[in-house]
Amino acid sequence: MSDLDQKYILAIDHGTGGPKCAIVSTQGEVIDWAFQEVPLHVEKGGGVEQDPDDWWNAILKTAKQVINSGKVSVDDIVGVCNSSQWSGTVALDKNGNHLMNAIIWMDTRGAPYMKKLHKSLIQISGYSLRKILKFVKVTGGGPTLSGKDPLGHILWLKDKKPDIYDATFMFLEPQDYINMKLTGKFAASYASIQMHFITDIRDINNIKYYDKLMKWAKVDRSKFPTDLRWSTDILGPLKDEVASELGLNKETKVIIGAPDLHAATIGSGAVRDYEGHIYIGTSDWVLCHIPYKKTDIFHNIGSFPAAIKGKYFLVNEQEIAGGALSFLRDKILYHKDELLKEEQVPDVYKIFDKIVEKVPAGSNNLIFTPWLIGERAPVDDHAVRGGFYNLSLEMSREHLIRAIFEGVAYNVRWLHTYVEKFIQKRKIKANPGMSKKDVVMPELNIIGGGGSSNVWCQIFADVLNRTIKQVKDPIQANARGAAFIASVGLGYLTWDQIPDLIQFSNVFTPNPENREVYDKLFKEFTNIYKIMKKTHKRLNT
Question: What is the DSSP string of 269-305?
């Protein structure tokens, strides 16, 4: 395809930290991008909210920045596709106005209602055995006891804010709220609606609501979108007023897109079955596409409808990764209090990298646990908390900072262990000649903001004992994934072409000299959870 024939997508990467808009070619080249941070409103008792107006205003601002840059012709922008944070709840009236702040994926106020839902004589790890088996059979998972899923949000609203619940015309995920703002249509994708755990996904080509689960949860079916589609479907053209404000043609198509996990998986290039990637942003995950439905209820790993029509993808998520560095920056080093309000915050992440490079592997046996807001996988424990272990006077801030990098890597290794077990049997069956002795995932692509750190990539390679392939412009993976989804939906690409379009900046191989120290510290990392989980439960329940 010549430059004259090249077409582009306005890709929206709507993360927790704020939205990023990018102009991306249908071949995955990021031409320009802009980011706008939005506030996070944290309340005592587990409340974590964001204002949807902040989302939308930031999207308009950043979209206009990249469109008006003039780097591509408006006439060559053929589609708009959004990828948003997942597992959030926006309560809307019939005109599409939000009735309160959006409740996002970190919010735990729904925990008591999830415990009530699963109350029964026969329980397993706090779940009703009868109900969770039904949820898993039908949906591939189930609402967690943490209350962080949309059902927990909605049941909390129903009890604590009944006026808002009653006034709600429809509950939408952040993904589908942005699409509604773009097109005026109330709809959801099979991907985005999944985290409500009210759809039957047993037949990947015939996904539908399951009334019995809605009855158990005591939610009104009428308050959920009836229009469910695949991520590559065209939802419609931009609303006239949105097209006018952005300066785009009115016939510009909006492709439904998919939440962040789905789009990032595609943007990483890991679209073939069993090819995995690590995402390191505010949170982290280890994902891959698979051709079957399966659930590991004990480690919070499942398979849900992918953005690729007719496929599942392996799903898990850990609450805090790069968020631990943000916490260090914003709450400790550069806290926004009266004494430091005039101080300019430098680009501390580059400074962190330089500091970490100078500290020997293992941080002098200092271990950091990144469970700052509980954990989802491989343990579902909203009471567990983070900390530094084995801290001594001989250490300095350099050891603490490297320990944070390593602690996130230990946590990812903990999850990755169960991901490999999840897919091992099926991968061996699909690959004649492969045995149980072979490494299940010998290579992992890495994306997200944390993936831009060379020293962190090397730490991941060393801790996981796997080759880590650093995707070029790793922070753009979600936007690139949204663009690829749109490109497939509009007929510019096929899924099979995507892996060949991915470029890598570096490839990191494990350093055998660090094998002993990291294996030892990883074992102690998991021991810390076993020893401390009861203490954390007493302190934080």
Answer: T--SBT-EEEEESSSEEEE-EESS--EETTTTEEEEE
Report all structural domains of the chain as residue ranges with CATH numbers, in order of start: 3-85+87-258 (3.30.420.40), 323-540 (3.30.420.40)
Q: CA–CA distance from 27 to each of 3, 11, 23, 290 (Å)?
A: 11, 13, 11, 24
* Model confidence, pTM: 0.90
More confident residue, 341 or 102: 102
> Residue 461 is encoded by which pair of tokens?
């390679």
End-to-end CA distance of the chain: 58
* CA torsion through residues 280, 281, 286, 288, sign: negative
The pLDDT score that the predictor gives to residue 341 is: 53
The length of the chain in residues reads: 541
* Of residues 380, 358, 362, the one with CA closest to residue 371: 380
442: its two tokens = 């010998």
Q: What is the pLDDT of residue 123?
A: 87
pLDDT above 90: residue 338: no
Query: What pLDDT is attached to residue 346?
Result: 73
Please give the Cα distance from 407 to 526 (Å, whole number).
11
Q: Are 217 and 151 in contact (CB under 8 A)?
A: yes
C-alpha angle 383-386-390 in degrees, rounded to nearest 5: 135
| CB-based contact 221:209 (threshold 8 Å) | yes
pLDDT at residue 343 greater than cutoff 70: no
d(CA 239, CA 454): 42
**Contact (Cβ atoms closer than 8 angstroms) between residue 420 and residue 316:** no
